[in-house]
UniProtKB/TrEMBL annotation:
It comes from Babjeviella inositovora NRRL Y-12698. This is Enoyl-CoA hydratase. It comes from the Eukaryota. InterPro entries: ClpP/crotonase-like_dom_sf, Enoyl-CoA_hyd/isom_CS, Enoyl-CoA_hydra/iso. Belongs to the enoyl-CoA hydratase/isomerase family.
Length: 262
């Protein structure tokens, strides 16, 4: 397996290239269970943008560090408590826009989730295109227990994926739920027995995706997300436009990846 470290030096994450076309981004804050501070989110965003700008990378895996075996236990509450009222009002040091930048990553993202994915950790997983998880993983949005609400898309994506009634129950109680329910409701695509099997599955899936046409990958992701965000009518128009583009490209040889692979 090819493994090349990212030349950029990160403090809270690790980035490496696996299987030639797959970028692995691992959260690495073991002392605080990978709590997501603005600094962590900015590093994640930087790593994703670097992968987007690298034509050799076609798929990204986002995972917790193997030593910790936790995806992310939530936001960095200690950091949040250091913010003044003025900071909060002016959104200074909060970097809320980083969530959208992560979600808008152009290349497919696979979340390999283990242990806990709570609060911001759950929201980070839902920013990805496909979620894989171990069978013992627990998800949840417990922010209400702190007197606040999710801020990284939890109320919105939970509702779209889980349905209004179950989403309301979860965000109003802060209860956790298991990977089996997450899989049954479509939040998680596939379950694995342990971390080792999870990472093998994530790498295999990312490797399969990375072997497809880069143009088709990008257009497929955009089509699915457009339906998810804007509804069926808009999604159908986008899908048909990209189908026509793909057919034209195939006739011109633009969708053929053989020349690049040689």
């Amino acid at each position: 397996m090819l493994e090349v470290s990212n030349p950029h030096s990160y403090q809270y994450i690790r980035a490496s290239t696996r299987l030639e076309r797959v970028r692995l981004v691992e959260l690495h804050r073991p002392a605080v269970l990978n709590a997501l501070s603005p600094a962590v989110l900015l590093e994640i965003c930087h790593a994703l943008q670097a992968a987007d700008s690298n034509p050799e990378i076609r798929c990204i895996i986002l995972a917790g560090s193997p030593e910790l075996k936790v995806f992310a236990a939530g936001a960095d509450i200690k950091y949040m408590l250091t913010l003044s009222s003025e900071d909060v009002l002016n959104q200074k040091g909060m970097h809320l826009g980083t969530w959208d930048k992560i979600y808008r990553t152009l290349k497919p993202m696979v979340a390999a989730v283990q242990g806990l994915a709570l609060g911001g950790g759950c929201e980070l997983a839902m920013c990805c295109d496909i979620i894989l998880a171990t069978k013992k993983t627990r998800f949840g949005q417990p922010e209400i227990k702190l007197g606040i609400i999710p801020g990284g898309g939890g109320t919105q994506r939970f509702t779209q994926i889980m349905g209004k009634s179950r989403a309301m129950e979860l965000v109003l109680t802060g209860d956790m739920f298991g990977a089996v329910e997450a899989n049954n409701r479509g939040l998680v695509a596939k379950l694995y027995d342990d971390y080792e099997d999870l990472m093998k599955g994530a790498l295999y899936l990312a490797y399969r995706i990375s072997g497809m046409s880069p143009i088709a990958i990008a257009n497929t992701k955009r089509s699915v997300n457009e339906s998810f965000e804007l509804g069926l009518t808009s999604g159908l128009k986008t899908e048909q436009a990209f189908l026509i583009q793909g057919l034209l490209n195939s006739r011109l040889g633009e969708g053929d990846d053989e020349e690049e692979d040689e």
